[in-house]
Amino acid sequence: MNASSSESDKRRVSLRAIASAARVSLMTVSYALRNSPQVSADERSRIQALAEKMGYRPDPLLTHLMQHLRSQRVLKSAGNLGVLQTRTAPFVKHLVHGATARATRLGYTLDHIDLRTYQGHPQALTRMLLARGISGLLLAPTPDPANYEQLLDWSKFTAVAMTYSVVTPHVHRVVTHHFDNAVRTFALLAERGCKRVALAMARDMEFRANHSYSGAYLRTAFATGNHVSPILFLDEVSRRDLRSWFDQHSPDAIVAANARQVHESLLPGLGARACANLAFATLDHERGERIAGIDQRFEIIGSHAVDAVVAQIHRSEKGLPENPTIAMVEGHWVEENGLYPFQKTRA
């Protein structure tokens, strides 16, 4: 141990010293510095201000040890954590599966709450969550942009969203890195010789991806100087419009949001002959699908979301955060059948 660290240890202010100065118990100081509701808000503020004035700094090794010990005392009754959801799309199931596995590993139980039962009844939802012993909430993706401000009493819970579709309240988020995923996809197509790459998606992907797909598309086109086709919003065009767009812009590759849009819109609208000579990639690769693309790693997102909620619980943080953060998980490129899924052998 060097001299500077030794001097630092000598100057370290103890909880006992703070308790003596504040004229409270050692446990009260411990609770106050962890923002625990066991101590009133005014008393917490007073003790925290005094600790700051005395120069208190937590010992990181001791803090880590205490968090570990507290995690071993997690209640095993059902409902330590809850996931609030309104849809059961496959990708949502993957998110919840990853979250459930991680919660179980950490000693928590994850309750699945169907919000459709409680819409418009915030007091009932809050009471139910508290009765089940739920202290941390995961917010799953919604079909449309959602405002959850009045959904429940947020001051009693910690929360993390696994989506951008829950617009309010502003909570911490864990999401896929939409922008990076798209930039890497466009760059890979350019490396493979594609000069006229187009982007096709449903309009709702603009808010689901926080405008990252369109931003990455335009950024890549600007950087490469390649042709830029208007973004094709598949839910806003007829088959005739689709064919006219294709004839006008002559793309040699199309990036779609997912494989369903390729099979249900692009392939029927353009025809098998045109699609046979097109490179395809998706920004949400689905398992077992022949089309190359980005695996968004939904299980990992769900797992990290649980870690984010549990970290807040360990820090005794409840209510809406003053400075919400966004953690992004990079996707993985998956390519099993090349970029030309509708042509077995490309000339």
From TrEMBL:
UniProt cross-references to Pfam families, sorted A to Z: LacI, Peripla_BP_1
Cross-referenced Gene3D superfamilies: 3.40.50.2300, lambda repressor-like DNA-binding domains
Every HTH lacI-type domain range: 13-67
Gene Ontology MF terms: DNA-binding transcription factor activity; transcription cis-regulatory region binding
InterPro entries named in the record: HTH_LacI, Lambda_DNA-bd_dom_sf, Peripla_BP/Lac1_sug-bd_dom, Peripla_BP_I
Organism superkingdom: Bacteria
Coiled coil: none
CDD domains noted in UniProt: HTH_LacI
SMART domains (alphabetical): HTH_LACI
Keywords recorded for this protein, A-Z: DNA-binding, Transcription, Transcription regulation
Protein name stated in the entry: HTH lacI-type domain-containing protein
Organism: Nibricoccus aquaticus
